[in-house]
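Hi L.,

As promised, Crystallin:
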Amino acid sequence: MSTTTPNANANTTTLWRPTGPVELDLVAALDWRAWPPRLPEQPIFYPVLNEEYAIRIARDWNVKHDGAGFVTRFEVDTEFLARYPVRRAGGETILELWVPAEELDEFNAHIAGRIEVVREYR
């Protein structure tokens, strides 16, 4: 199974992240170029490998718990991502990467371009 989603740059992989308004504000404060540090109770950062899964989380979980949910899309260096095995968190399309919180700065350094909001739910 390939983890690379076709995109304009063959050297990057498209990832998505469902998020609530608090985390989104922190991303905006980082000029849309990085994810904020994890809280102590968040030892893992979970980007997902397909937009449909991100939509389900943003729409069904974030809206319920945070009042709003957002789907973000961003590109990360494919070669760097090879260190993180794809994890199946449920059905066949429920795929995510598990990035340890202590590696998030290095992960952020491999983001190509900006993080963008592609969907919003309220």
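The beta strands are 12-19, 44-45, 69-77, 86-88, 95-97, 99-100, 111-121.

Thanks again for sending the construct details.

K.
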